[in-house]
Amino acid sequence: MSSSDAPIDVALIGGGIMSATLGTMLKQLEPDWTIQVFEKLGSAAEESSNPWNNAGTGHAALCELNYTPQLPDGSISIAGAVKVNEQFQVSRQFWSHLVENGSLPEPASFINPTPHMSFVWGESNVEFLRKRYAALKDHPLFQGLEYSEDASVIRGWAPLLIPGRAKSQPIAATHIKAGTDVNFGSLTQSLLTYLEDNGAEITNNAKVTGLKRQKDGLWRITYRREVGFTPFVVRARFVFVGAGGGALSLLQKSGIPEIRGYGGFPVSGEFLRSDNQELVARHQAKVYGMAAVGAPPMSVPHLDTRVIDGNTSLMFGPYAGFSPKFLKNGSLFDLFASIRPHNLVPMIAAGASNLSLVRYLLGQLLAKKSTKFAELQQFFPHGEQKDWYRITAGQRVQIIKKDPKKGGVLQFGTEVVAAEDGSIAGLLGASPGASTAAPIMLGLIEKCFPEHIDNWRPRLEAMVPSFGTQLSDDPKLADEIMTATASTLRIPR
């Protein structure tokens, strides 16, 4: 066994956007702290952060209808949309700060302007979108949102949506130029390059096999390299588990009581991709529709422009599926290995109360290729199968947790789980994930390093000028910050 005598200040398990974001923040706050990243694969950002394993939407609720549910009285709740937009504005501020101080390269390497649209058909859905637009259009975070039920206007926004559609079909769309397409893989790689250039150690092909708290308060991390059987050991003062679907099992190994009762439900997915440049040239937007009954929020259908390494493609999906793996490069035994006596009841209860989701997944698994392609043709009536091919998306593990009334609930979104003393924390869950990495990691810093916050506050406010405030409460500040970040990142206001 090989071990290092000197403990490191920060150990980041997982080489994705979350670890890269937290590591960069801490390096900006404490340049002298020692940081080491442990990545199971041969290179970073190959799981959920890989650009083809996610939709790349800069999630700001500009087009995602699941953030604005219709209430029983018929009104539209915009609280979820405002929250997600606020979070994305924090990420924009952080990225802008890094671009300005030279820690990130040219913005076009990771973020590109791409209009965001919502598109629906059918009278009830049109009525819903009309109400949604009315509820959002005057909010300071949604300035510039447009609405139309006119086919010629919608065709001007997204030409592929209209030809071949029945003229009698009620349709409606919203459109906003301020949307973005984000290459989270490139962003992650750039953040890790910054860390490595500033003294951090990036250790690839390192599978963490043990995580144990020592009597002296340090964390003992055991890992193995891809080649060889010799285990390596490092000690760390603080550990962040940002291993995506692998976070649950590692937090279980840590033994912290806070992880008791948590389980995970894996959902896999597929997209259809087209590199036909004739089609690409005719669709410059991310167009989101209505989710199917019983579908999880991450399965909302959308037809997207994707810009990866300077090349533009189209992507449609996702088509949900099921695999017991917790990672795309994981094991078929991941789900079963995660079961513990303390999470068995919550997992059973969550399954029993989400039968509509089970039916939806079964329907997706059993659907024929022609049936799946017909879903694309609801967006793009003249779509032809020859122009599209299937790609497999990343695995997502939804949170299952205890509930005093139901026994257990399936929770969509993300959640930080941290030890009481703040010496270890991990992130569970999925979407909107990457888009909200900056605010999630700021919250983690406040939770795990409370003794440093007063000293760090000036630097935190330099990284994120709105730190400690809500932009939606101050329209003038919101306009100033959104205008400034748009200018730095070279995206529409």
From TrEMBL:
GO terms for molecular function: L-malate dehydrogenase (quinone) activity. It catalyses: (S)-malate + a quinone = a quinol + oxaloacetate. It is an enzyme of class 1 (oxidoreductase). Pathway: Carbohydrate metabolism; tricarboxylic acid cycle; oxaloacetate from (S)-malate (quinone route): step 1/1. InterPro entries: FAD/NAD-bd_sf (IPR036188), MQO (IPR006231). Keywords: FAD, Flavoprotein, Oxidoreductase, Tricarboxylic acid cycle. Its cofactor is FAD. It holds the Pfam family Mqo. Its EC number is 1.1.5.4. Gene3D superfamilies: D-Amino Acid Oxidase, subunit A, domain 2 (3.30.9.10), FAD/NAD(P)-binding domain (3.50.50.60). Belongs to the MQO family. This is Probable malate:quinone oxidoreductase. It comes from Conyzicola nivalis. The lineage of its organism: Bacteria, Bacillati, Actinomycetota, Actinomycetes, Micrococcales.
